[in-house]
Design goal:
By secondary structure, the chain is α/β, with parallel strands linked by helices. It has helices spanning 15-26, 38-44, 56-66, 79-84, 86-106, 140-159, 185-195, 214-226, 246-256, 269-274, 283-289, 297-311, and strands at residues 5-8, 31-35, 48-50, 70-73, 111-117, 162-168, 170-172, 198-201, 208-213, 236-238, 242-245, 261-264. It has 2 domains: 5-171 and 213-238, NAD(P)-binding Rossmann-like Domain (Rossmann fold, 3-Layer(aba) Sandwich), CATH 3.40.50; 174-210 and 242-277 and 295-311, Alpha-Beta Complex (UDP-galactose 4-epimerase, domain 1), CATH 3.90.25.10. The chain has a 7-stranded parallel beta sheet, with helices on both faces. Strands 7-9-11 form a 3-stranded mixed beta sheet. The protein has a two-stranded parallel sheet with strand order 8-12. Helix 3 runs parallel beside helix 5. The structure holds nicotinamide-adenine-dinucleotide.
Length: 316
């Protein structure tokens, strides 16, 4: 099956790993990377296009030119950055997503995959929520993700555009740094442990959030995209990998780096973390498209430390 895939926001934490994987699977020339940062696009190599998702004309032009079948829409302003600049978050995440859906509809695209987030939940959401639950987020990022989910469902039912998505927890990875989310501490802590032997968390030690290691996130993005539509009960699925507190993360890192020390100095991001559930129920994903994570906390930490110490050329 020959498919042409366009990835928006391709130079970010997820895109920079997803693009090479999609190229391996579908052929290099069939996966078009796009972003606003041209230097980073060059690093991902051709084919690429500079696309600001606020520019619908450019989106439509590229979709037509490459005869795009599938869009992975990853361009976004993440939760913590979004609270620093809610106006930009609104523009990029809401208007940008609307532009992608419209351009996809007009251009005859078959599928659009949009990562959603645990940020759709809010303080009123019960812990361990399923797909159908209370969605009353307290951040502009969360609001924009609720919009993406509802608009995605709308385009599916109204226009037959096959929109699918995943409610991702915090994503942990070593290849590309995270882009300004509330769960960034779970990545920063590894850099700090290896480089300085010390880390100051911006959350309390009992802060417990769902997380996922990048290989699982990439697997979920491809598995959901390829899933048989007749099996899907929802357009947006919860996916979960592991769930741990900052204290538990510290203890696991200490198994590999015994001299590692930490402090906990919560800042404004604590409020965002407190508004999210500590775990989420991904039974539907397991039943409908055979989702199963491969990584747990200890294996992930070992792999992160091995790969990051090689990358940073630092022995621990
Ligand atoms: N990383 C996580 O922990 C996480 C968790 C849940 C959901 N998600 C979602 O996954 C998707 C990808 O996240 P990520 O972590 O790779 O984000 P990121 O911040 O690392 O990357 C986002 C990319 O979007 C680009 N971008 C910003 N504004 C743009 C615009 N106007 N037009 C085009 N591109 C623009 C940026 O240059 C960047 O390369 C997002 O939708 C995000 O909300 C991520």
């Amino acid at each position: 099956m020959l498919v042409r895939i366009l990835v928006t926001g391709a130079c970010g934490q997820i895109g920079s790993e997803l693009v090479p994987l999609l190229r391996e699977r579908y052929g290099k020339d069939n996966v078009i990377a796009s972003d606003i940062v041209v230097e980073k696009l060059k690093m991902l190599s051709e084919p690429y296009e500079v696309i600001n998702v606020l520019d619908r004309e450019k989106l439509e032009k590229v979709i037509k030119e490459y005869d795009i079948d599938i869009i992975y829409h990853l361009a976004a302003i993440l939760s913590a950055k979004g609270e620093e600049n809610p106006q930009l978050c609104y523009q990029v995440n809401i208007n940008g997503t609307y532009n992608v859906l419209e351009a996809a509809r007009v251009g005859g695209v078959e599928k659009v995959i949009i990562p959603s987030s645990i940020a759709v939940f809010g303080p009123e959401t019960p812990d361990n929520p399923g797909e159908i639950t209370i969605l009353k987020p307290r951040t502009m990022y969360g609001i924009s993700k609720v919009f993406a989910e509802l608009a995605g469902e709308y385009y599916y039912h109204k226009y037959g555009l096959d929109v699918r998505g995943l409610r991702f927890p915090g994503i942990i990875s070593w290849k590309t740094p995270p882009g300004g989310g509330t769960t960034d501490y779970a990545v920063e802590v590894f850099y700090a442990a290896i480089e300085k032997g010390h880390y100051t968390y911006f959350v309390r030690e009992d802060t417990t959030l769902p997380m996922m290691y990048m290989p699982d996130a990439l697997k979920a993005l491809i598995q959901l995209m390829e899933a048989d539509n007749s099996r899907l009960r929802y357009r947006f699925y919860n996916v979960s990998g592991m769930s741990f507190s900052a204290r538990e993360l510290t203890e696991v890192i200490k198994k590999f780096i015994p001299y590692f020390t930490v402090e906990y100095k919560p800042d404004e991001r604590q409020k965002i973390a407190d508004s999210w559930p500590s775990r989420l129920d991904d039974t539907a994903a397991r039943e409908d498209w055979d989702w199963k994570p491969d990584w747990d906390l200890e294996r992930m930490a070992k792999d992160m430390i091995e790969n990051l110490s090689k990358k940073l050329r630092k022995r621990v």
